[in-house]
Amino acid sequence: MKLLSRAKLAFLLIAFAVFASGCSSSRPYTLGALKTEDPDREPIPEPREIEQNFYWDRVDLTVFHQLKKPLNLAWTGRKAGALVGIGDGETQADNVNAFDEPPRSSWWTPRHYYRPMTAEELAIGPNTDGRTEAGPDTSGTWTIWRGKSVGAASGFFIQDARGVRYLLKFDKPSYPELASSAEVISTKILHAAGYHVPENTIAHVHPEQIEIGEGATVQDGNDRRPMRPDDVTSVLEGQPRRDDGKVRVMASRFVDGHVLGPWNFRGRRDDDPNDRVRHQDRRELRGLRVISAWLNDTDRRAANTLAVYTDERYIKHYVQDMSSTLGANTGSPHRPIHGQAYMIDHRLIPQALVSFGLFRFPWWEYDPSAAFPSVGYWRSDVFRPDEWVPTYPNPAFEKLTRRDAFWGSKIVTAFSDDDLAAIVQTAEMSNPEAEAYLLRVLQERRDKTGRYWFRRIAPLDRFRVSQDSGSALRLAFDDLAVERGMEMADAVAYRYTIRHDGTKLDHGMVSERSVGLRVGEKTINEWLDEQNLTNPDHRVVRVDLAPEYRSGDDVLRPSEVQVFVYLPATPTRPLDVASVFSRDDIDPHAPRVVGLRRK
User: Fold this and answer.
1) What is the mean pLDDT of residues 319-343?
2) 265: which residues sit within 8 A by CB, 6+ positions away?
3) Do residues 19 and 74 make contact, with C-beta atoms less than 8 angstroms apart?
4) Neighbours of 98 (CB within 10 A)
5) Cα–Cα distances in Å, from 496 out to 436, 451, 490, 512, 517?
6) 68 membership: H or E segment, kind and range
7) For the whole model, what pTM was predicted?
8) Interstrand relation of 142-147 and 210-212 (parallel, antiparallel or unpaired)
């Protein structure tokens, strides 16, 4: 015990010396306008194009990135502190506002969770012409101007009769519809989750409509040469044909703007003045790990991103290439290890070495067979939301905190069964049983994601101030676990404490999802008036909320949420708005929630 106490003391001294300069005393609320827009779309000079060696990127992330972490004093200090019981080893995202939300930016925009989309809107997704059946013009000729040479899927770059350019990807004949279905479904989901994605659609074309354009080339070894008819034939032969002779293809429309190359999940871009937050510290990139785990998006790395200089003269950040999601690993099914461990996993190698090869990893026992050729290896029973990892380490995913995970989970669980069915239908799968199986596993993985993370951080959100029938003010909120069927609604209660500047004003337990803002028989507003408190900062109270979920004799108590409520001296109608992105033109005299802090 003495040794442990000395270790804690030593760590505290080191931590103070290392981190004192980084401490902040900023208040956890704002009485002004909430930051819902990131000013990262200001016009800038056109940055340079970046070419990245993706083979080196894999080696760097797998080996050198892992070796450098222990040499980082801040990283080592946090991990050592967590080991001796000081702190949790987490550092929070840098780009969140007083409501613990990321603002709209060149990286992400609030969509389905914040403003529920209709089934039709979900099915349309990012399609530029607002139609579910968007894609290349199939009435005319598709002209190949370049053969695809990067990535595992075969295909061409084409221009349709309208002059619109697309990348075409074909499924492997042995796994028809596999990669194309996964790509279209995951594209629609990621768009609804708020990410910028290309327009990816299913199209059918007759081989005779495809012609080689003048100057078209294809990669042949280390060189490029003029494309020949047999290059086209080799891709199309074996492709299943419909009765009308047409073959299925996934068409990815070129995005508008000048493509600069990929963006990274760490660091900042030195030639972009708008790029102020390290990428690994962005909430939307950390939280993407939870969404990627749900979709089994195992190849989510820099190689599958796109930085685009727009006509508005800023860099827009895209997520692309979703062909290694769901049960697909590009053209073939995933293998059981995918999502379970890194390709070279430094966390697991010691176990194998210590056991002299006797240790057996769990996925060695999993049945690797695909349920359907068009679905691939896609399971929910072996899915562990907290243990999921991509094939190669991702610096932003590695920094996931419980608060990041809650953000990702509330987006994942915002998709209802009907929402997902509408999206899955856009993949145009020919086998109804395969489609039903894919959808069921997607729903089951969604539910496992919500149940896991909502049990580790209080799933309360959408806080707002409302008025009851007697005009008394109440703090209302949503319980995402109850509303989405993750916990039993008749076995939940909410413990609350209302505080003002350290003074406890009221406490208790309620079963409804709202708390009266009172001090005994008085309203808190009346109590604040009696104290002659007129300074706006002195009229902010803190409500601590902690849910309790009962199941028989078992009681689950996730962490607490601290909600800050402003009660002005001359109040007007309360701001009863659930979405933080709908708080435009706020009345400064409206009683309202002004911040929150998740513990």
Assistant:
1) 93
2) 279, 280, 285, 301, 302, 394, 395, 396, 397
3) yes
4) 21
5) 43, 23, 18, 12, 11
6) helix 65-68
7) 0.91
8) parallel
